[in-house]
Input
Amino acid sequence: MKTTYDVKLGQVQQRANAFIARWRVAGKGRSKSFRTKGLANAFLSDLRQAAKAGEEFDVATGLPVSMVAAEPEGPSFLEFGQAYVLRRWNSSAARTRETDAYALLTLIPALVEDAPRRPAAEALREVLRIHALLPEGRRAALNPSQAAALCWLEGASVPLTALGEADVLRTALDAISVTFAGTPAGANTVRRKRAVLHHLLEHAVEQKVFNTNPLDGIKWSVPKAVTSVDPRTVVNPTQARLLLDAVPKVGRKRGPRLKALFACMYYAALRPEEAADLRVRNCTLPEEGWGLIVLEKARPQGTKRWTNSGETHESRSLKHRAERETREIPIPPVLVELLREHIATYGTAEDGRIFRTSTGGTYSSSAHSYVWQEARKLAFTPEQVASSLAARPYDLRHAAVSLWLNAGVPAVEVAKRAGHSVDVLLRVYAKCMDGQQDQINGKINDALGS
Output
């Protein structure tokens, strides 16, 4: 290593979206770019202190000898996490973007070096949420306190290569195992966040940072998540009719406008986002007999910062389906009649959507939930209201699929109508399939000689 004491420090200059720290070593100009001015000034301050202390500078890198050894190779975990989110942005749905970011809100603040003046955890998550994990055009302007928090995070984030160490990965796994409030996280939440971490590290393997995914070498049990529907949530046809009849009694506008939407979830097993994007052109509604729904799109709800349009709802392809792929669902006369009445009473939105607010918008999940809970109070006994029976609007879809299976409809046909694969269908609804228990008990009685 060739070293020198010939060092001249410059200033920080702003160029586009970066701040450039400039200095000269042995007559050769040096520069390094930073995301914030504070981080660039901090870097020059470190160089100045090294020069005052009489430290030699490496001619090849332009850095003090002590900093050459400490200089991390490759990106920090923060930088790689940012690149990971942005790389997947155009090909991901809004909810996927939010899931990725939500996992990184936990992981990035946890994977940092010890450094003085650490900001509060919520402050770190805030700058990630509103700025650092978004594309340039969507980033909120930061106030001085937020800018300082981001500067601290940029300086303290561990190198990506550190995730090759078992203790660092265990820190990450410990972090995703608890909520932001410090309580144990739900199994599904932990599994989703681990999946994001695993996928991020797969990208690091592709970029030759690691030979194999280091997370695969950690002996850590992924929490078991409930994947099957609880039969206690499933209503029978009589209970479903009572609930649907109670919905229009909730409020003057919301309830009456939502009855047919909830009916689509029960009689056609539509997901809420599928019902929200249902249009007149998707429906065949004869005056008599069965009708048909041909689903083309779904309209999921997301957070504005993660959607393409900047709105909470936007149309996209059906879940688990390719772009432009449709799903056909025959619908019984009772639903045909409800849809015809709804269209005749309320008309449609300008884009043909059947279900809309009085101003043409899309009802939020909170609006669905409010109306549903009020309807449960009207239709159910106090004991049923306190139970898990149809606790969520989504349970109407579970009730529909369970009804079809128990009515003897072949699993292949049920899966086709519900938008599932057969194996997922049978696994999710295994506990809701009745009709065989008496036969099995009889066989056991025969074997016992009873």
The two ends are 91 Å apart (CA to CA). The beta strands are 3-4, 7-15, 18-25, 28-34, 57-58, 283-284, 291-295, 297-298, 316-317, 327-331. The longest strand covers residues 7-15. The chain has a mean pLDDT of 89.
